[in-house]
TrEMBL record, chain A:
InterPro entries (alphabetical): Trp_synth_b_CS, Trp_synth_beta, Trp_synth_beta/beta-like, TrpB-like_PALP, TrpB-like_PALP_sf
EC numbers on record: 4.2.1.20
NCBIfam families: trpB (TIGR00263)
Cofactor(s) named in the record: pyridoxal 5'-phosphate
UniProt name for this protein: Tryptophan synthase beta chain
Keyword Amino-acid biosynthesis set for record: yes
UniProt pathway: Amino-acid biosynthesis; L-tryptophan biosynthesis; L-tryptophan from chorismate: step 5/5
Gene: trpB
Organism annotation: Longibacter salinarum
Function comment: The beta subunit is responsible for the synthesis of L-tryptophan from indole and L-serine.
PROSITE patterns on file: TRP_SYNTHASE_BETA
Pfam families hit by this protein: PALP (PF00291)
From TrEMBL, chain B:
Superkingdom of the organism of origin: Bacteria
UniProt enzyme class: lyase
Subunit structure: Tetramer of two alpha and two beta chains.
Stated name of the protein: Tryptophan synthase alpha chain
One Pfam family hit: Trp_syntA
Keyword Amino-acid biosynthesis attributed: yes
Biological role: The alpha subunit is responsible for the aldol cleavage of indoleglycerol phosphate to indole and glyceraldehyde 3-phosphate.
Originating organism: Longibacter salinarum
Amino acid sequence: MTNNPNIASTERYDAPDATGHFGTYGGAFVPEILYPVLEELKSAYAEARVDPEFDKQYRDLLREYVGRPTPLSFCDRLTTELGGAKIYAKREDLCHTGAHKINNTIGQILLAQRMGKTRIIAETGAGQHGVATATVCAKFGLDCIVYMGSEDIERQRLNVERMELLGAEVRPATSGSQTLKDATNEAIRDWVSNPIDTFYIIGSVVGPHPYPMMVRDFHRVIGNETRAQLLEKEGRETPDAIVACVGGGSNAIGIWYPFINDKDVQLHGAEAAGEGLNGRHAATLAKGTPGVLHGAMSVMLQDHSGQVEIAHSVSAGLDYPGIGPEHAHLRDLDRAQYHPVTDEEALHGVELLSQTEGIIPALETAHAVHLLPTLADQLGEDAVIVFNCSGRGDKDMETIAKHR
Amino acid sequence: MSRLDKTFADLRDRGEKAMGLFLTNGFPNPDATLPILRAIDEAGVDFVELGMPFSDPLAEGLPIQRSSERALSHGVTMDDAFETAAAFREESDTPLLLMGYVNPVLKYGAERFCERASEAGVDGVILPDVPPEEARFITDAAQRHDLDIVFLIAPNTSDERIQRIDKLASGFVYAVSVTGLTGSSLSGDVDAYLHRARNLVTDNALLVGFGIKTHEDAMELSQHTDGFIVGSALINHCADLWDAPSLSDEERLASVRSFARKLKYGTEAEPA
Ligand SMILES: Cc1ncc(COP(=O)(O)O)c(C=O)c1O
């Protein structure tokens, strides 16, 4: 086992293949206009990822601008309260802008700059990815347009204000569900119309190849740090379980990826069950079927005739009918377990973490918190659990207050 | 020789440009689609592109997006597209293609989709979100059921890639005129691009589409091609007609006929 936390142990697990497929999932189902654009991105990224200069720029920014490494905080009161395994929180909520999303936007903006792109577009659900994109655009002086569903603009007004203050233009997506799915459609339409000067910063491990792989690579710093920090704190590199919430799946893949070959590490994902699996929800893996959404084959919520269904979650960041192709693959390989968590359970999760640890988590993160009591109990006192505290709850205070 | 190949060969012999018209199945309402297809057939359309509505049509501008939403709000399904196609085929020999996004086809099952399409008298399929690299799931089934598979090229497609697409495509190669969505305005040096494409596409007919609104647009763009395709302009025309409560269906269909004639011949009069 390597002691260098920057080298992921990928000897055995090596998805995706050269064509961007994770088993039967992934690929690039895009209009022809975007195909040459993706080819250009693929080769630019292939060069950048082995360029020490690029790596240095990325690492320097993570350290000096994002505030990495983020702490791995031992949750002593939560551990006592639950009476089972020792629980650690990987503190992505302490990243600049308040969530893990910034790791990825830093990587992609460097790539955009390297490719000479002058205009940045993004989609956002909770607004965290939009804020992270607007932030790096301000930092690098690039034009920024963020597509956001008009319902999410209502739910996440604070983040809209932040994006505008940062100099971004927020464009409402008014079709369909008026949430992340439609914001993504609008961003892709913009990209189809401006393929040459525009770089599309995708906010999760979704979309056509090479995005799921590239976004994963930019987030795997979370897992790499976790390995090194665990070794320091517990004298072991691997925990017994890693828990994360899954919308598109970027924070989960980021913390899991360096552990995929450690077969004794359980990987648990929490997806949004909204009002319950028989009501309105966003539980893609629990209730979805294989299909193509936003340029990749994965698993998605759809009706009997293949029309995309509208997802629901109290948390705007999980309110998406699709999921990254790598998650569908990990599920099929039985390498990760995914659990539906309802809105109500997530709201309890917010209170649990707030009142035991003084950490108000994002509603997305709170879905992962909900899995902790059961898992801590099952694994017992000798075990170590890490959960990815993907973001802080400031943006959700209005929603949380409304439901308390 | 497929019905499409034959049509393009006949037109070439006559020195005529082919006109393809796109209409979403179930638009402006499920009862109106077939009469509109008949009307454009009478007006001289050379092939029909029947759209299978999808909830998230990524490459479409507003007119076609809205037509899709409108059709879906009537509960229109894939089977309805086969029914429309079969009814059209009973009356006409004009080639008909199905156009749609990959997901509903996957859900239906590629093999079953091709079988039903073929039984309904469909000649080919266009799936704009399936580049040739991802097309394996349908190409074998399409071949087994004698369906042509049309692929698209765009202004930023390289020479080498255009040649590769030409080898894989059948029926025709669809040259998207603009870097943009359906219904966008024409701009840029379309002429140089189509000239380049004309020299590279040697196995198939070459048709141009996206953004064509008038006979003049059509004639200008099809200088280097075997013909042209119009979608959004017809959809907009139909939306206006069917949203005008004072018109009778006969008046609407007469207007569709003259719209199509003007597009193809530059005049509303019957062709000589
Ligand atoms: C704090 C936080 N966690 C998680 C997510 C979900 O995204 P992903 O599944 O890609 O980590 C979001 C999305 O906006 C978020 O803001």
